[in-house]
Amino acid sequence: MSQSNAKRRKVEHRQSAVKVKQEVCDENDSDGDNDPCSAIRKSRSLIARSINEFNFNKKRVRVLSDESEVCEDCKSIIYWITRDARVEDNWSMLYAQRLSLKFNVPLYVCFCLVPKFLNATKRQYNFLLKGLQEVERDCHNLNIPFRLLIGEASQVLPLFAKQHDAGAIVTDFSPLRIKRDWIENLKVKLHKNIPICQVDAHNIVPCWVASPKLEYGARTIRKKIHDKLAEFLTHFPPVIRSPFECEIKSNNWDAALKSLQIDDETVDDVKWAVPGTEAGIRMLISFCNERLKDYASKRNNPNYNCLSNLSPWFHFGHLSVQRAILEVKKYSNKYKESVDAFIEEAIIRRELAENFCYYNDKYDSLEGAWDWAKITLKAHEKDKRPYIFSKEQLEKAQTLDPLWNAAQRQMLREGKMHGFLRMYWAKKILEWTKSPEEALEIAIFLNDKYNLDGRDPNGYVGCMWSICGVHDQGWAERPIFGKIRYMNYEGCKRKFDVSEFENKYKP
Ligand SMILES: Cc1cc2nc3c(=O)[nH]c(=O)nc-3n(C[C@H](O)[C@H](O)[C@H](O)COP(=O)(O)OP(=O)(O)OC[C@H]3O[C@@H](n4cnc5c(N)ncnc54)[C@H](O)[C@@H]3O)c2cc1C
Questions:
Q1: CATH pick for 366-504 out of 1.10.443.10, 3.40.50.150, 3.40.50.1820, 1.10.579.10
Q2: C-alpha to C-alpha distance for 358 and 370, rounded to whole angstroms
Q3: With a 6 A CB cut-off, is 314 part of the ligand 1 pocket?
Q4: Would you identify the CATH topology of the domain 7-257?
Q5: For 289, which DSSP code?
Q6: pTM listed for this prediction
Q7: Which residues of the chain have pLDDT under 70?
Q8: DSSP 478
Q9: Which residue puts its alpha carbon closest to atom 7 of ligand 1?
Q10: Is 102:437 a contact under the CB 8 Å cutoff?
Q11: Atom from ligand 1 closest to the CA of residue 448
């Protein structure tokens, strides 16, 4: 899969790209274009005319199959989306198009829809499917066929690849077990001469490049990531209109909806979060214009609307974190502290969570915790709990703590609990259930059932941080928690007006 462009052209291109890049960075929408999507589109076209003229960093790609050569006589390249459901600002899509142009064959984009996915509800499936409908539209506008295949990849992709005589399958990266299993299962069924290439289109620094090992905490990974940002935090070139003749047909979205097997039909859509890339970009621009200024100082106050609220779009890959960082960084002079704080959360903390799930198979169980935490939790396993609440009482927000209940109701109603309260919420579950194992199981269950951004490395690590001390340090020993960091109602009262929050989320 060596690059076909001549070296000289690459050097010339790199020089002009650096210059253009600077202009794009300085631009800050100063051309008066009020449509954020079209301003971003314009910025891409200033970087390069297409991926062919862009110096694609191949460290973002790794070959997962034994076969690594694309057959010269192939008739197509397939991009199988598993996580990054967007067309632009997507290194997987760009790499797939690069192969398609290099081998002079059409690119097919597909998604394999499974009827059950870690107990996802209508709320998450609808968000996913509406985002994919936008992918279909954007692909078709670029003369790229998009196919929604019903079934697990190992059942449907081998036939699809055969029908289109595919030369390679390009896919996204996720550290989660289920997605790794999909790839392993596909490898067994796919024709052995078709290479599978994985691109980390979710992280700015590819997970396997950021660190080759399980990191202990933010302090051990921070510098490793920052040192690599100059190389990886680049601008994106555009995906271009495909020059190949192909049949473009619409997918049957009603049939897709009918194929789902959802256990609990009561968890419905939320109004504030509109799925898709366009809505994600609008949310990003509103963050930059309205909320970013207070992000550093007020992000731990749940009464204050200053978070980016971008996690649903990040989670489903509708919006690239790299795009968000490029936009937010334009405000570095104006709001330096807030920009730095956002970079810490969206790059360092998020990519640390990816590192944890990638290098630790037990990322969602007590066994995956550090030894000191396992020992201290074991030592306090039998401590008397002040109250015990069942999973059902917790789910229905029926505890004796009005702040906890309000936070739970925020999640039930809006599909997103405030970040500060997520910590308090999970720690209280540890205090009110029979064992740390049960606490972790319930926290993950509720988090994933109701939050739009659930089933994410950030979620597993958030629960593991709160209940099992992952990426944290030991604190003064106390009942139930042992050395795990403790949070309580009085502490919350000192930080923000808890009654204001409780009133906002009344029963
Ligand atoms: C118990 C618990 C459960 C959590 N569950 C999830 C989850 O299911 N999905 C999820 O995406 N995040 C989860 N988080 C992390 C964090 O709370 C959310 O990412 C954040 O609240 C999302 O809102 P936002 O996009 O407005 O955040 P912002 O503060 O605007 O942050 C921007 C982005 O930075 C990243 N980020 C922020 N905080 C963290 C963090 N602590 N760890 C890792 N990345 C972070 C996220 O990608 C986030 O979208 C959880 C945290 C805890 C303590």
A1: 1.10.579.10
A2: 16
A3: yes
A4: Rossmann fold (3.40.50)
A5: I
A6: 0.95
A7: 1-33
A8: B
A9: 459
A10: no
A11: 8
